[in-house]
Design goal:
This protein is of the alpha/beta class. The chain has a domain of 97 residues: TIM Barrel, CATH 3.20.20.70. It has 13 helices and eight strands. Strands 1-2-3-4-5-6-7-8 form an eight-stranded parallel beta barrel, surrounded by six helices. Helix 3 links the parallel strand 2 and strand 3. Helix 1 crosses helix 13 and helix 12 runs parallel beside helix 13. It is globular and about 45 Å long. It starts with 6 loop residues before the first strand and ends with a helix. The structure holds 2-phosphoglycolic acid. The site of 2-phosphoglycolic acid has 13 residues, from strand 8.
């Protein structure tokens, strides 16, 4: 089985100005030993307005930067939107797509994601595709159905060669920002199911794709999650706003 390099991403959501982002990066880099940075992909996802400052502060380090959303078109009359090329121009290598807050609060659809994911790849950005069920869906025993629908639709226009470059985050909606973390067993079960879906397309690629867990990850619970062989890292919201907490999670991933 191939060794999957751990991946830890900080989803800042609508937090941090440029100055705050710069300060965070300096403190994070001061805190993280070089070996941890060498063995883990560490990615910061700031708001668009702080992308450039974050990328500038990270220059010369292995730290990478991602957008939190993008429009699928190269340019055009799309007020308030940002293209893949613009995100790259600001210094990012990656982009979060399909976060549940986008799906629930801003009308993001699987149809749009089916176009956004290949558009990001075509522009050279690494998509971090978020999928996950709501509490009602889980309680109704529909978790697998929801994950299957999202994975199939969102990756429908991505070939198997390109699939290798996609990072997936399993984020059960009921665990996001609630302090209610999925148990390691629940997270692993869902991630194994997602990997099985990918294996239906290409077994070797499915073994290589990094699948993260997200939802109330904190320094205190990161180790038991990261210790699970199926869980390749974390997409961290609230706990990523503090450089010490986030560094603790990265270090856990480095040793897991
Ligand atoms: P949380 O957010 O860690 O604050 O639950 C995770 C996410 O939304 O990606």
């Amino acid at each position: 089985m191939p060794e999957r390099r751990p991946y830890v991403a900080a989803n800042w959501k609508m937090h941090k100005t440029s100055d705050q982002a710069t300060d965070f990066v300096k403190r994070l880099l001061g805190r993280l030993p070089e070996p941890a940075m060498r063995s883990v992909d560490v990615v910061i996802c700031p708001p668009f307005t702080s992308l450039r400052a974050t990328a500038d502060a990270a220059r010369g380090s292995r730290l990478r930067v991602a957008g939190q959303n993008m429009h699928q078109a190269e340019s055009g009359a799309y007020t308030g939107e940002v293209s893949a090329a613009m995100i790259e121009d600001a210094g990012a290598t990656s982009v979060v797509l399909g976060h549940s807050e986008r799906r629930q609060l801003f009308g993001e659809t699987d149809e749009a994601l089916a176009v956004k994911v290949p558009a990001a790849l075509a522009a050279g950005l690494e998509p971090i595709l978020c999928v996950g069920e709501t509490e009602d869906e889980r309680d109704a025993g529909r978790m697998e159905e929801v994950l299957e629908r999202q994975i199939r639709a969102d990756l429908a226009n991505v070939g198997n060669v390109q699939l290798d470059r996609v990072v997936i985050a399993y984020e059960p909606v009921w665990a996001i920002g609630t302090g209610r973390t999925a148990t390691p067993e629940q997270a692993e079960e869902a991630i194994r199911f997602i990997r099985g879906l990918l294996a239906g397309r290409d077994g070797a690629v499915a073994e290589r794709v990094r699948i993260l867990y997200g939802g109330s990850v904190k320094p205190e619970n990161a180790d038991e999650l990261m210790a699970r062989p199926q869980i390749d890292g974390a997409l961290v919201g609230g706990a990523s706003l503090d450089p010490d907490d986030f560094a603790g999670i990265v270090e856990t991933a480095a040793v897991a």
